From TrEMBL:
Transmembrane segments: none annotated. Residues 3-72, 228-292 form the FAD-binding domain. Pfam families: FAD_binding_3. This is 2-polyprenyl-6-methoxyphenol hydroxylase-like FAD-dependent oxidoreductase. GO terms for molecular function: FAD binding; monooxygenase activity. It comes from Saccharothrix variisporea.
Length: 320
């Protein structure tokens, strides 16, 4: 049985490794010319590490990163609202992609090769082509929607002992330490906001921004719920199926779990039965996560009653 994976990101590579393990002949088609050499950090939660363990790659992923220390949520003046008890392993996107790609044999991953659904004559097509998925568009006609927030990301050569987030009026700023001693940071503003708004926030936020280069800015979009993650011989995974705002830090995690779940469903089933099993297992849970992430995004962006919001945060963090 032959499978085509359209997209060589986290979900696509996880699916390829998993499908090969259960006997599929897999080819991954990735439009970029190679694996990225730079990228911001990813938080891999316990559920996704367990999925990587299923692929036999969990220990390699752990060795490529570091465990995230517990952090805090603060106000812009530095007042601590509560502690974040982290059960997360941090590693960069290039490191995670490297771990996954190294598990594939030569020739399985084809760079510089764009592929469309119409061109695939495989028994299975895995659409892992991201939030702007052409496969999803052709099957369901569903496009991503803007959340109304703008995301900013960067990495700085400045170590911090622990990460966390700072919530202000309609804005937030987050820090995550990396294994190499650098710090990954991210921020969220309204569509008309810019990073100068964080210049008066507590240390080390102004210093992080002053020393950052190559800052990325993008709209924080999300995908409305799809009626299904499968159609005929096609399965949608990762952002192609359930792109969510980054507020829960679960995007890469859910893409990994999608890929591993899909491979498991196709281990001993015919393609049609296996795909419907994958859809039943993954669609409702990921759509609930996406809904919660969007709610948290909107909560972080409130401009009024921030004192009430902060009190609610304090109580929620106190009870875990």
């Amino acid at each position: 049985m032959r499978a085509a994976v359209i997209g060589g990101g986290v979900g696509g590579l996880a699916a390829a490794v998993g499908l090969r393990a259960v006997g599929w002949d897999v080819t991954v088609f990735e439009r970029s010319e190679g694996l990225p050499s730079t990228g911001t950090g990813l938080g891999i939660w316990r559920n996704a590490l367990a999925a990587l363990d299923t692929l036999g790659l969990g220990d390699r992923a752990r060795a490529a990163g570091r465990k995230q220390p517990d952090g805090t949520i603060r106000r812009p003046d530095g007042t601590v609202l509560g502690r974040l008890r982290a059960d997360v392993h941090l590693l960069t996107r290039p490191a995670l992609l490297g771990v996954l790609a190294d598990a594939l044999p030569p020739g399985c991953l084809r760079f510089g090769t764009a592929m469309t659904l119409a061109e695939c004559d495989h028994d299975l097509v895995v659409a892992a082509d991201g939030i702007n998925s052409g496969v999803r568009r052709s099957l369901f006609g569903v496009e991503p929607r803007p959340s109304g927030a703008i995301g900013w990301r960067g990495t700085v050569d400045l170590p911090v002992p622990a990460g966390g987030e700072t919530w202000g009026r309609g804005m937030k700023f987050g820090l995550t330490p990396q294994a190499d001693g650098r710090t990954n940071w991210y921020a969220m503003t309204g569509p008309d906001g810019d990073l100068s708004a964080f210049s008066s926030w507590h240390d080390p936020i102004p210093r992080v921004l002053a020393e950052s280069r190559d800052v990325l800015r993008h709209s924080l979009d999300y995908l409305p719920p799809l009626p299904s993650y499968v159609h005929d011989r096609v399965a949608l995974i990762g952002d192609a199926a359930h792109a969510m705002t980054p507020d829960l830090g679960q995007g890469a995690c859910q893409a990994i779990i999608d890929g591993v779940t899909l491979a498991s469903a196709l281990r001993s089933s015919d393609v049609r039965s296996g795909l419907h099993s994958y859809d039943r297992t993954r669609r409702r849970s990921t759509q609930r996560l996406a809904k919660r992430s969007l709610m948290l995004n909107r909560l972080a962006r409130v401009h009024r009653f921030t004192g009430t919001r902060d009190t609610a945060l304090r109580v929620a963090l106190a009870f875990g």
